[in-house]
Amino acid sequence: MYKIETHAHTMETSPCGRVGAAEMMALYKEKGYSCVIITDHYSIRTFIRMCGKPWEEKTELFLRGYREAKKAGESLGLKVFLGIELTFNFSINDFLIYGIEEDFLRKNPRLCNIGLAKLNKLAHKNNLLIFQAHPFRLGMTRANPKLLDGIEVYNGHPRHDSRNELALKYAKKHGLLMSSGSDMHRRQDVGTGGILSPMLPSDNSELIELLRGNRENSLIKN
After folding, report:
1. Strand partners, 162
2. Which domains does the chain have, with CATH numbers?
């Protein structure tokens, strides 16, 4: 079975990240993971550090963490995919978006402004999946389940109580897809979550297929 990380943040891009992409890949390799999805924070907090730069340059700067992780991962035999953890303006809810290609971010700038309903239409048009991250963490509110593909039913962040048991019940009640992720920011966060798979996805199409078919017994809960 292949171990796949679905929620990880690099120091190069996410303001709250404390581990560089290359070191992160080495840590995941040590933990026996075969694949990591980089989900750096796509939010005002990230882009405010790039104030004054044209949006095209902001996009390239945002991609730095993923690109460094991909380069390091290739040298270690790790598969690395691009995702984002999107926070809309004037909201604290977070959404993990899977299946993204670099060109999607170039063609669709300022995603923080569009809201969940428009993101839902855009995601389905581009074969992306939307999972609400840690929906029962203190302060979060549950999004309309009709606008989601799934939710993160297990979040391994050791410094937050994500009330994962409530998220699991909610996913079952609304027939949502389920995911587990470490929500990795620091060294000690590596390998606290993820999913197990009998196949290793080679591209985004296979990754989306895997996430659509994921089951509760495939979730890593450390």
Report:
1. none
2. 2-221 (3.20.20.140)
For residue 4, list its beta bridge partners: 35, 195
Buried b (16+ CB within 10 A) or exposed e, 38-61: bbbbbbeebbeeeeeeeeeebbbb
Number of Cα atoms under 13 Å in the Cβ half of residue 87: 19
Q: How many CB atoms lie within 10 A of CB 64?
A: 14
Q: 173, exposed or middle or buried, with CB in 10 Å at 0-12, 13-18, 19+? A: exposed
**Pairing label, strands 95-98, 2-8:** unpaired
Dihedral sign, Cα of residue 38, residue 39, residue 45, residue 47: positive
Query: What pLDDT is attached to residue 140?
Result: 95
Specify the pairing of strand 129-132 against strand 95-98: antiparallel
Mean pLDDT by 10 residues, the chain (222 residues): 97 96 98 98 94 93 98 98 97 97 97 97 98 96 98 96 97 97 97 97 97 92 90
Query: Exposed/middle/buried for 195, CB within 10 Å: 0-12, 13-18, 19+?
Result: buried
For position 52, what pLDDT does the model report? 87
Please count the residues of the chain: 222
